[in-house]
Amino acid sequence: MHIMKKLTMSMYLGVLLMLVCLLASCGGRPAITMEDNGLDEFGSSDRVILIVLDGFASRYLNYLDQDSSLYQLLQYATYDLDGQTIYPSHTCNAHTSLMTGTYPDQHGLIGNVYYDQNERISQKNISADLIDQKTLFEIAGEHGKKTAIVSGKKNMLTLFEKGCDIQATMSAHPDYIGEALQLDDSENNDQYYDYHLKTTSWVFEALKSVLTEEKPDFTLVNIQSADSIGHRFGPDSFEVAQAVKLIDQEIGKLFSYMKKSDILSDTAVMILADHGMSPVSKAIPINVLMNNNFDQAAVVVDGRNAYIWLNGDDAAAVTTFFEAQEGVARITSKGSPEAQALRVDCERCPDLILDSEPGYLFIPEALLWKYQGMHGTTEDSDMNIPMIFFGSGIPQNQEMADAKIVDLAALTCKLMGLTADGFDGTVPRLTAPGAEAVDFFTGQGD
Ligand SMILES: [Zn+2]
User: Fold this and answer.
1) What is the pLDDT of residue 271?
2) Ligand 1: centre distance to CA 366 (Å)
3) Does domain 47-277+378-439 have CATH number 3.40.50.720?
4) pLDDT attached to residue 151
């Protein structure tokens, strides 16, 4: 009798244990714990990894609950859940501000695109030659450090090719990384969604491989899915919520991997976004308006911004015309105090920068179906980005006051002991740990 009872008990326990393991692995939510490192200010770290969650607006954190990896990480992290990116809030120039520690008027990239005066066409800001400042790759290289980029956006490789030792993206990567999925039909929403989720997991796997095989000192990572899926389905969509949950799970798995393989003991990890995402549903067909009304001026469109080069047309006439257009919220002129304050006054800067009203973007009507989310303005939904740092040299359970994306080059250099100057940003100031995060994640706060 006794033995039978014992057997039954152990069977129960066994089944229970199996269930717990199953639940844990299905949820992809390994418990996150770190030893107290006793730091109350930023220390030092042999290695730094910057993980940019592209287009991951601060409010996307509301899609996560208290069991999520990011939520669990907060008690071991230094964070600002409402950090600030730069204006205009776009991928190429925000990454460049991150990598140079400077504002657009210093590094020379305004948004994702510019007007090429010689070719008379719109060009993408994806060439390393366009960057007027030294990047963290170049600074690290000067100090004999090994650098790597692992990116779900291919353009990041050309933009930051200077001083980068190891490059990995879906189409080009070292052999020890498995093959990536190809996107067959970008107009099929199901395929598009599926591709970006699978690519997210691929990038995280590629990162683990690069960390293990190469042991880089400084690594830049771009996770593309919150942005790509946010653009197509909108920031309030089920699809974005799922992408956010997947990213969170992958961060949990990365944490476990780094801890198990002892990478975390000498590595600081900074998780951040490059910009946010706002819902859009209305088009401002600015190319047509420009062609029909002005002879010389040229415009290039960049989501919720349009950049105008006057080429001899009258600034006041162009400004007055577009101020009267439905959906245009603001026009900033080169040389004005406003342009200086927004840090978009420079030789290569456009003559006029237009911002859209909430709900609008600059695009031909025919392409509107592609976009339910967009960014670029100074609105909180476009500008506010989470910043969550943990690992070697990072104080635990600390908040930063007003952390900015331009501050992280200075912080990276401080952590790694690299000497560099000319940054606009500074090492973020720490404040006492606050209760705000709890409100944020439970949706009780703002
Ligand atoms: Zn982006």
Assistant:
1) 98
2) 23
3) no
4) 97
